[in-house]
Amino acid sequence: MAFDLKRVLKVMLFASNGPLSVKDIQTAVTRFHEQATALPLEEQGAESVEPGANPDTAAEPAPLDEPVLPAPVEDDEFYRDVPTLIPAAQIREVMDTISLELRAGDSETLLIEGATGWRLVTHPRFARWVRLLRNEPPPVRLSPSSLETMAVIAYRQPVTRAEIEQIRGVSADAGLAKLMERDLVYIVGRADLPGRPIQYGTTDAFLEFVGIKSLDELPSSDVLSPRQIDAWLQTSANPRAAGDSDMGLDETEEQQMSLQQTTPESPAS
Q1: pTM of this structure
Q2: Tally of structural domains, the chain
Q3: Are 123 and 2 contained in the same domain?
Q4: What Cα–Cα distance (Å) separates residue 131 from each residue in 122, 125, 136, 137, 227?
Q5: pLDDT digits (tens, 9 = 90+) for 111-137
Q6: What is the CATH number of the domain that holds 201?
Q7: C-alpha separations of 124 from 108, 119, 128 in Å
Q8: Which residues contact 14 (CB under 8 A, 6 or more apart)?
Q9: Residues 244, 164: Cα–Cα separation, whole Å
Q10: Which domain holds residue 126?
């Protein structure tokens, strides 16, 4: 039987202490071949006898109280025909297959891909049992204010606190403090503006929180696009008087009234 990549990946996922990346898998394959070429030519476990020595007394039996470990079986099916390099596309294909099998089998675990690799996680419906085992409190939900602040940072980053407050129209201190406490937002640097204000951006924990691998997977939004935000910032800096359309009034009503006033009255019969 040839090398079974899917079964090997399942074992690696189970044994990994963190996200398993393509590089981690390829590194393990490279180590396998390095160790295979470094093995001695003599068979492991074979007893060597020096020239001139008595074969009956040369080798002493091991004490009975010492455990005898089995020698590794390098010709096992899982160690035969191992390719020297496994392409990233093949690894992703097999990982997708494992993920679909877990979901189709209604498994208690799921395979998710994050920004730094794949992880086996428990199904959300069993989250309460995991919290009971670890004696952890229920997760604290983000407030609508914090969610709005996080959305502005995600689409606008790097963004300053003043820009966030101009877009939302309220103070962003509480929302920023909560997001930084949850490690969803961090300080990127300082803007090239007077006073060098601090700029904020999202972290890798934000990607896991949202369930995406990169910021490119964020859903497109015309409301939070850079062009629309720039227009809002310009409007907030130079406010204009509200018109009928801003108040929800029908702009054609005034035109209709003016037409009625100019229409000549019909003669009485």
Answers
A1: 0.57
A2: 2
A3: yes
A4: 11, 12, 5, 7, 44
A5: 988 888 999 999 989 999 999 999 988
A6: 1.10.10.10
A7: 9, 14, 8
A8: 120
A9: 28
A10: 1-38+74-139
